[in-house]
Design a protein that fits this description.
13 strands, five-stranded mixed β-sheet, about 325 residues, about 25% strand
């Protein structure tokens, strides 16, 4: 009899939906496998009165789950891949990337704006987002709008919107879909306006390095096209030394034997926005991501990021 597979998860509603999906898919693939879930709150879940970027982004939603694996209290952790840092703690690895949902960002509007889209919102409309990536790109394209930080889980954010605290929110389409709230999506933001977060829409399953039995169990959920796209995106982010709380956006697709990657770095005020693309063999996705990072650095991305880090990084 195989040992029970122990999953560590955040306890937010979206995290639990995602973790239960992984559990159910693994149970289908491995008849008789016992699976347990240990749900917990992470630092990012507990601190709700400070902007995410001010807290610091290294493992904001992942460290507590990783600690469970390192002390052998869990075998795997299920993450929204966009929350998983590109450099993992020693002894842990990204074991599997699941098939991606739509990675686009979505506009959700207050009822009074049902007849408008993002471009036609009245000047001064208040847009709720906790993402510097969304903030910088939307400031670049829509300087007439006002932007206000919003924290809490998806349900809490929607309640704040419906109470009139915001005119609209920008949220991940994938998260809304997984929560059964796809009908709240008013508009999907075109990549020409807003590139999505690295790994957005995919789940990453983290495990201990060298745990071959667990790797064999979880790799039934690996989706190779998604994995290649996300590995290219993560290599791009890693090479720029950015985290999930900096204005770095991506878009990727597979065309025949090639992988095409678009990347963006912007200043917080949206005035400077550097965007370019790279393509190459989809069998070597990390090389594409690294090449694109070097291209953007040559155009000034490094200087923009240094300014941002000096502004948003918490004091030591």
């Amino acid at each position: 009899m195989a040992n029970p597979l122990r999953i560590a998860s955040r306890r937010s509603q979206l995290a639990m939906v995602q973790t239960h999906w992984v559990r159910d898919e693994l149970a289908k693939a491995h008849a008789g496998l016992e699976i347990t879930i240990e749900a917990m709150a992470t630092k990012g879940d507990k601190i709700l009165d400070v902007a995410l970027a001010k807290i610091g982004d290294k493992g904001l939603f992942t460290k507590e789950l990783e600690a469970q694996m390192l002390v052998d209290q869990a075998d795997i952790a299920v993450h929204s891949l966009k929350d998983l840092p590109t450099n993992l703690p020693e002894g842990l690895m990204l074991g599997c990337i699941t098939e991606r949902e739509d990675p686009a960002d979505a506009l959700v509007v207050h009822a009074k704006h049902q007849d408008r889209n993002l471009a036609s919102l009245p000047e001064g409309s208040v847009v709720g987002t906790s993402s510097l990536r969304r903030l910088a790109q939307l400031r670049h394209h829509y300087p007439q709008l006002l932007f206000k930080d919003v924290r809490g889980n998806v349900i809490t954010r929607l309640e704040k919107l419906d109470a009139g605290n915001y005119d609209c929110l920008i949220l991940a389409a994938a998260g809304l879909g997984r929560l059964g709230l796809g009908d709240r999506i008013h508009e999907l933001l075109d990549p020409s306006i807003c590139l999505h977060a690295v790994g957005q829409g995919a789940l990453g399953i983290e495990c201990r390095e060298g745990d071959e039995a667990v790797l064999a169990q979880i790799r039934v959920l690996e989706h190779l096209p998604t994995a290649r796209r996300c590995l290219a995106e993560r290599a791009f982010l890693r090479e720029l030394e950015g985290g999930c709380q900096v204005p770095i956006g991506v878009n990727s697709r597979i065309e025949g034997d090639e992988l095409v990657l678009t990347g963006m770095v912007a200043s917080l005020d949206g005035v400077r926005l550097i965007r370019d693309g790279a393509r190459g063999a989809q069998t070597d996705p990390e090389a594409i991501g690294m090449a694109l990072a070097h291209t953007l650095k040559a155009q000034g991305a490094g200087e923009i990021l240094e300014e941002i880090f000096a502004t948003v990084r918490p004091e030591a």
